[in-house]
Amino acid sequence: MNFDDTPQEAEFRSLARAWIAANAPKQYEDELRKSSLGRTQLKNADILEVAKAWQKKKADAGWACLHWPKDYGGRGSSPIERVIWQQEEGVFGKLSQLFIIGHGMCGPTMMAFAREEHKRKYLPPVASGEKVWCQLFSEPAGGSDVAGLRTRAEKNGDDWVINGQKIWTSGAHYSDYGILLTRTDPTVPKHKGLTMFFLDMKSPGVEVRPIKQASGASDFNEVYFTNVRIPDHQRLGEVNDGWNVSLTTLMNERMSIGAGVATGFPELFDYCSSLMLNDGPAIEDRAVRAKLANWAVKASGLKYTSMRAISALSKGERPGPENSIGKLVAGSMIQDVATYALDLQGAAGVVSGPEDAEVAGRFQAMLLRAPGTRVEGGTDEIMRNIIAERVLGLPGDIRVDKDVPFNKIPTKGR
Amino acid sequence: MNFDFSDDQKQLRDQARKFLAEKCSPKAVRVVLDGKAPYDSELWKGLAEMGFLGVAIPEEFGGAGAGHLELCVIAEEMGRANAPVPFSSTVYLAAEALLIAGSDAQKKKWLPAIASGEAIGTLALFEGKGNPSPKSIKLAAAGGVLNGVKKPVADGAIANFAVVAARTGSSGRDSDISLFLVDLNAGGVEIKNLTNLDPTRGQAEITFKDCKAEPLGAAGEGWSILTQVLDRAAVLCAFEQIGGADRALEMGRDYALDRIAFGRQIGSFQAVKHMLADMYVAATLARSNSYYGAWALSTNAAELPEAAAAARISATQAFQHCAKNNIQVHGGMGFTWEFDCHMYYRRANAMALGLGSLSYWEDQLIDRMRKKNAA
């Protein structure tokens, strides 16, 4: 057990540190430091532009998508080097979160299933942030039940013709490409008739409508497909084997969300360190300390769990379903942390917005964004099922639609 | 960076697990649980022969000199087996106090005896309810003799010697406290066995009446030494706790797979599955915090105080959570004397109190995090 850098790791760290010191967009450092879940806007700049510029700068110097192969725009780094980079990049890493779907999910899926010429053409601009990708899986009828989707793909000459609707698509409104899961055979059980494609989001017949969330922000979208044509060479994997392809994406999703998800703890600890209550500093209050200590050990437990996973990864072990715990724990924790921070504010906690609220309204923003974290990429309940079934070996849920042809499955409860 | 135990350490873990599976079955634990013996002396001898008691004691003092990571690995297995021996009081508390503060002569006298299984040691710190603090110590030391009462003292009725925290000043500062070594077979010591939550590890009341004692460490250094001992023991106990938590989780999982109700394995019901998943989550977070504590302990890192408190809180919560819900998964059977669930429930709740309760460690953690942030 050893946390010290090896000589090679130390060398890598000093290179990374020097490059970041010379190149990071420092004018945004303070604002980024104070941003948290639900509040990632810059006051006087378009955060997407700033993020794209930082990503491009990293890519040009060989610091983008460190773990991707060099041929596809990455650096071919080890998992440990990726961690070192993240440690050194610090708050500027929050900018790259805007590209997480492309970097963490679409990219790895393309690497596993796309043709070589497509990988060489499409992946480097993903790494450099020049092209943004989204993931078109969820539908109104199939959220956690991904395989319940109804968007149809029908073969027509060398093309496929797509009709249907997706929902909860993060970043679709600023995406250039997307990976799309469709139904190609409704007469077989639901998992067996799916096929995956990638497509240009500017294709005729694609319409993106932002969804206004409970928080008031619009990070997600509905996407409508009307006779959208996709050439067959943009298919990922075999016809009707889309479920297997999507499992690769979803596993990567859990990895990238799990590793990057915020807990809200550092923000709460800072807040309690400076907040004065009627009887003195909040952090000297017995009840506050008990709450903080309980969240502190969850936050550190998550941190060291991901370090254990990285150690395993660097020894050549595959990331397993145990990585679902990051999202499961952090998702409800951030919601509880935000609720508690507002509780400490008393009646003043009801005021939100960066101008009028305590600490620029970061906890109010967090509270209103947090419910989404517990749902996106699989609900808490799905995460618990994954742990119970795939880690502990408990029986799967009873699935009454498992062997029923998709077009015979009831569509209404009553 | 490599955040895992080495292959050699994992091999040691397998060896300890195999040994304990053979020598420390639930049936053997029940001999002590049922009050037929104060501890499993055969197992104690076996642990000494395997070299487990002295694994972190330097070779010059009769130990294996392997180190604290190795001791963590063994501690986890002791917790998994629910071993009814005075391992934590002797090895984590008494031996660590000697290693930190003992004179050469004291180390030479007691450490080889610990490693060989001849001596059982303990720490006499508490005096009734409340958490560790210099103020809570009333037992007085003057002129080389002790007067006062310690209660509860873990394994006090079977220990050969105790490290005793005593008051040697009245300034109201931490420096009022000094430590002493007491041979419990000497005169002036009265020991009363106490009924306690976990009969597989005894608790006693020890009364000292003009009892001769030799200082351990410098006068006035007692509280600072105790803090170090408690931090180290917190990490080691955390490993026992994660071992126990994992075993309780396994028992619950196995039962959920075996038991049929409403025509299905009960483990196929989401309410049961999700309870077990939450047990897994708690055990995993505790394990990760404990690994960090193990690293800090084995390297004597500046992070040890914070890491120890985090490991302590996390592992205490995880063991209590898993032990409690293991009974719940078992339903009515889990509440019977015959099933083993209650042994882990007892141990989990006894261990949660032994080094100071959660509220003490929560305070410690926040103080230590503040100190680090201020630095």
**Which whole number gives the mean pLDDT of chain A?**
91
Kindly provide the radius of gyration of chain B, computed on alpha-carbon positions and rounded to a whole number of angstroms.
Answer: 20 Å
What is the topology, as strand order, of the major beta sheet of chain A? 1-4-5-8
Distance between the termini of chain B: 25 Å
Average pLDDT confidence of chain B is: 97
Largest sheet entry of chain B:
4 strands, mixed
Fold topology:
The complex is a heterodimer of chains A (414) and B (375).
Chain A: H1 7-23, H2 29-34, H3 47-60, H4 79-89, H5 93-96, H6 100-113, H7 116-127, E1 133-136, E2 152-156, E3 159-166, E4 177-183, E5 194-200, E6 206-211, E7 220-231, E8 235-236, H8 242-260, H9 265-274, E9 276-277, E10 280-281, H10 286-314, H11 325-345, H12 362-373, H13 380-391
Parallel strand pairs in A: 1-4
Antiparallel strand pairs in A: 2-3, 3-7, 4-5, 5-8, 6-7, 9-10
Chain B: H1 7-23, H2 26-33, H3 41-49, H4 68-81, H5 87-101, H6 104-115, E1 121-124, E2 140-142, E3 145-154, E4 161-167, E5 177-183, E6 189-194, E7 203-212, E8 214-216, H7 222-258, E9 260-261, E10 264-265, H8 270-299, H9 304-330, H10 341-354, H11 358-374
Parallel strand pairs in B: 1-4
Antiparallel strand pairs in B: 2-3, 3-7, 4-5, 5-8, 6-7, 9-10
Would you kindly provide a written description of the structure presented here, covering whatever features stand out?
The complex is a heterodimer of chains A (414) and B (375). Chain A is of the alpha+beta class and 414 residues long. Chain A contains 13 helices and ten strands. A four-stranded mixed sheet of chain A has the order 1-4-5-8. In chain A, strands 2-3-7-6 form a four-stranded antiparallel sheet, with no helix packed on it. In chain A, strands 9-10 form a two-stranded antiparallel ribbon. In chain A, a hairpin with an 8-residue loop joins β6 and β7 (220-231). In chain A, α1 runs parallel beside α4 (79-89). The longest helix of chain A is centred in the C-terminal third of the chain and has 29 residues, at 286-314. Chain B is an alpha+beta fold and 375 residues long. Chain B has eleven helices and ten strands. In chain B, the strands form three sheets. In chain B, strands 1-4-5-8 form a four-stranded mixed sheet, covered by helices on one side. Chain B has a four-stranded antiparallel sheet with strand order 2-3-7-6, with no helix packed on it. In chain B, α9 (304-330) runs antiparallel to α11. The longest helix of chain B is centred in the middle third of the chain and has 37 residues, at 222-258. The mean pLDDT of chain B is 97. Chains A and B meet through α10, α11 and α13 of A and α7, β10, α8, α9 and α11 of B.
